[in-house]
Amino acid sequence: MSGFFERPNFLYLSLVLFPALVFSYRRIVLTERAFSLFSAAWFVSHKRRLFQRSLCYALSWVFLCVAVAGPRFGSTVVSVREDGHSVLFVMDISRSMTVVDGPSSRLALASRYALMLAERLENIPCGLVLVKGSAVLSVPLTLDRSTLNSALLSLSPALLSAPGSGLASGIQRALESFPSSSPASRTIILCTDGDETHLSLEHSARMARSSGVRLIIVGFGSTAGADIELYPAREKGELRRTMLREDLLRRSAAVSGEKGVYVHALENASATRILAEFDSRERGFQLVPSSRPVSRYSEAIVLCLFFFGAGLMGGRATWQEKGSH
Predict the structure, then answer these.
(1) Cα separation of 154 and 287, whole Å?
(2) Cβ pair 47, 27 in contact under 8 A
(3) Where are the beta strands (DSSP E) in the chain?
(4) pLDDT 10s digits, 210-232
(5) Which pTM does this prediction carry?
(6) What top-level class would CATH report for the domain 77-288?
(7) Domain definitions of the chain by residue range
């Protein structure tokens, strides 16, 4: 649903119709009991008009809710001034990221951190790769922030079934997902605690360097760490200590090239340091064709006003007819 509306939660306002329709139905029933005051023919006509008016008002309210929700469907190609950058977020969603050893779980903090960065990276195509024991491209490079935001808000280890944490597969998937013909500068932002099980992060960092892709690593968690159950389904699960592997993450950022960066998410101005890597003085702009969803707000407003006007006209006709009796 969120793909068709910018603010889908406003659609719940249409539920107000149910008590309104009940009230309208009660009016019809009360009118039917008193129909003996007028001719039977007038009552049949009045009942029909009352029903039509209620229906028009109901449809008017529905289209008003749709308009407020920001409907959009279909697409159009427009020329967009695009920064000479493209960014893929690689999000570690392994079970170790669910540990709470900070203000919130590592994964919840990583989600909010990536959302904040994506919002600040205006006019830069961003995408999302999820990595656990394997990796998948969840959101291809796009300027549509609503799609990316929805994916970042729903991060969970349950999204991928492969156990473990293979960060190298995430970086490899991101490298494959950048368009080979694009002149844009390519950047991978890896959000992880570094507690991988496949032990291949440094090798993938060298691959990023050889591909000319900048690697920015954001660390989540604490070096003290916390315990996590290896087999939570068992009654007496075996515990394992999981912690932020800061040394590994620093080394991996260093071997990825001169522009490799490592920051801890809770460091002061860590996001500012990352955003500085996209300083407009170091990037060019280009006009590129981009597919954008078409807003249908105006159509919804027109339909809202049309049915509201039809309801008013129906009500006027009803009272004029009543006055003639």
Answers:
(1) 32
(2) no
(3) 72-83, 85-92, 126-131, 135-142, 185-192, 214-219, 226-229, 239-242, 261-264, 285-295
(4) 888 999 999 999 988 888 876 66
(5) 0.63
(6) alpha beta
(7) 8-71+296-323, 77-288
